[in-house]
């Protein structure tokens, strides 16, 4: 009866609600007061560089790290008092795989399920289903150690699903994987989303955020720098197209001469200049007109990477 | 900003390459020696004190101890036993780790150094470690009056030989291990420990039941102990001693060949 | 399809109301889910293939016992027993070996094994992401160590009895005493592990274990030491275990036994409190 009420509440209320959330490690403030709401059924992303406070936030949501300040409710409950009951309904994929190397692939799923108090009979069937989902059925009785990075990652994700979680936390799910393995994982995560699982994903890959997230926040130095859907963020913080000009080492010109309306913004990276503009080809022609002779040029659509560059204060021109 | 790209690498000769491996291991050891002092140096000394002085105080000199006080009887035997134990540790986890966890061997064979030279360097380094630990042990033993004369210096040589007779085959074995080192604890318990307790270190193997003595004859520790005691007390006979040395030399050679084969298999396939 | 399965699973899952056992009532919520038993299941599964390693723990003291019988025991046939009368050397050392192996096993489990799982395998992080709390983990891991240690001790005592090395019915108490000793060492070992920074620090564990093994009247009576050293030896925890077990197997039971037992009770409680506190802080930061 109580459980049913909780479920009804979270059907309308956000699954995760944070207000002014703070995490301190001694004198270091890793998370500096963030406000976040994650709604049922959506895929929500935390985007940011290493050290932005994403993992600390995830650990607080996962109820394994007490908050230092602010408000936090997960599935309508307070992690400080209801940690175990919340964790019973979460699935967690940590940044580093922490599979049990002393057990086989199948045993990893079954034993982990036992930690949730699930019955052995139920877990036998569940493990088979999850092995199929993770495409690991033919490795079921192998050791974990010799599996490839992509397989370990899929097993970790399968493991996080053993309790049929309401909310799945994925901390950098594809870091360190090759492109093929990443696409396979993305496909699995997409299927989960289709089946109604709410996802929270951290990543520093812009393409991953664009692929997977309905809505995301950009984090930088413990704060939220922007919030919205990938398309919204791109249209709000970037231009339609980007022109990239590459120069040989030591021959890259300064940006100042080009800040006169040739593009909306110009950014200098160590090996190239980026021109933010509505029409990349036109800007390229103008650049040639100004006597620029890059070794290579590229006109492309704007991505979250550009949003990110703009937001993290590394831009030279506003 | 222009980078000069003149190749500076050289391919060293075989023996020099092995020495370069030793240099690399020494550089690591200089930063990490602390963790080995207790097991490699202090442990044998503590055993000498506990068993030689403590337990020995209860042992009357007898035929079994060659008429010597037990402390004196034990000292050369423990020198060999300690070398074998150190050899066992140095030939297992560090070797597996260089393959599996630290992967330093893979780094080394990416240079002009080959697998054969790598094996020589690794074994040479273990021999150096055994010699140094043994020398420290002898110095402490001398302070406690456990030594009879300069013959123990020869005992030290035999102790290192015995250690290597155990080390080389174990290095070959470690190069074949793929688990988290669980097989080593089996090796320590079922091979090293019985050998240590029953191989003639603490009491003559003539006390063993007759059926067990041939097993003791197979262990390097027994041959080494015979040699070390013979050298220390001047009681050795030429022919048996030659036999002991030959047996140990065969073990070393076989071990080196096996290790070279296993290293090549694992590193260059 | 996946959705159907998920719903079916949700329906099948019985959210068993957690039993409000004593621990649950005295501990802050979230530290204990009352599911430590599941860790025992995990350990049993994980060790299923490591049976040779497990068996090794049983054989180790047997090798010592054999060496005592054929070797050491013939160099020294008799020593002064706890009651002041001469006794057989083998019967003198056997209970001490039991005490030493209980210590070694417990400390090994609580230091090397725990450190590996905590620092490298990140096993406890994985467990804490589930409803399990740090107390489940501590209770589960210590129970496994004791189960294993208790089995070894029972086996060793059987061999001792078979060899006529137990001369008193008090010897039956040797098993629970060995378990208490193992628990105390495991608790202190876990507390120490929480301060370890790297494998290098484990040499300090050896530094504590080896002298204790050799000098806690394991192989020769206390009277061999000069008086100042005797006082040092009497501080070693292993000395108290040896005294207790030797007294029980030889039938020399005195009120001092209660003192020895209290020593271990204090170790067990202090070690557990420090270990639980430290690991809670380290894992849930």
UniProtKB/TrEMBL annotation, chain A:
UniProt keyword list: Antibiotic resistance, ATP-binding, Cell membrane, Membrane, Nucleotide-binding, Translocase, Transport
Domain ABC transporter: residue ranges: 16-246
Annotated Gene Ontology cellular component terms: plasma membrane
GO MF annotation, one: ATP hydrolysis activity
Bilayer disposition of the protein: Peripheral membrane protein
Coiled-coil region list: none
GO BP: response to antibiotic
InterPro entries with a match to the protein in the record: AAA+_ATPase, ABC_transporter-like_ATP-bd, ABC_transporter-like_CS, ABC_transporter_ATP-binding, P-loop_NTPase
Subcellular location as annotated: Cell membrane
UniProt xrefs under Gene3D superfamilies: P-loop containing nucleotide triphosphate hydrolases
Family note: Belongs to the ABC transporter superfamily.
Protein's name in the database: ABC transporter
Species name: Gandjariella thermophila
From TrEMBL, chain B:
Subcellular location: Cell membrane; Membrane
GO biological processes: response to antibiotic
PROSITE patterns cross-referenced by the UniProt entry: ABC_TM2
Record GO terms (molecular function): ABC-type transporter activity
GO cellular component: ATP-binding cassette (ABC) transporter complex
Key words of the record: Antibiotic resistance, Cell membrane, Membrane, Transmembrane, Transmembrane helix, Transport
Membrane topology designation: Multi-pass membrane protein
Transmembrane feature ranges: 35-55, 70-89, 123-147, 153-175, 187-205, 245-263
Full protein name: Transport permease protein
Organism ancestry: Bacteria, Bacillati, Actinomycetota, Actinomycetes, Pseudonocardiales
Domain ABC transmembrane type-2: start-end pairs: 35-266
UniProt-listed PANTHER family: NODULATION PROTEIN J
Organism: Gandjariella thermophila
UniProtKB/TrEMBL annotation, chain C:
Domain ABC transmembrane type-2: 52-282
InterPro entries: ABC2_TM, ABC2_TM_bact-type, ABC_2_transport, Nod_factor_ABC_transporter
Chain segments annotated as transmembrane: 50-72, 92-116, 145-166, 172-192, 204-224, 252-276
Gene Ontology biological-process annotations: response to antibiotic
Entry keyword Chloroplast: no
Alphabetically ordered keywords of this record: Antibiotic resistance, Cell membrane, Membrane, Transmembrane, Transmembrane helix, Transport
Protein's name according to its UniProt entry: Transport permease protein
Family (UniProt): Belongs to the ABC-2 integral membrane protein family.
Main localization (coarse): membrane
Subcellular location: Cell membrane; Membrane
The UniProt record lists the keyword Cell membrane: yes
Membrane topology: Multi-pass membrane protein
GO molecular-function term, one example from the UniProt record: ABC-type transporter activity
Gene Ontology cellular-component annotations: ATP-binding cassette (ABC) transporter complex
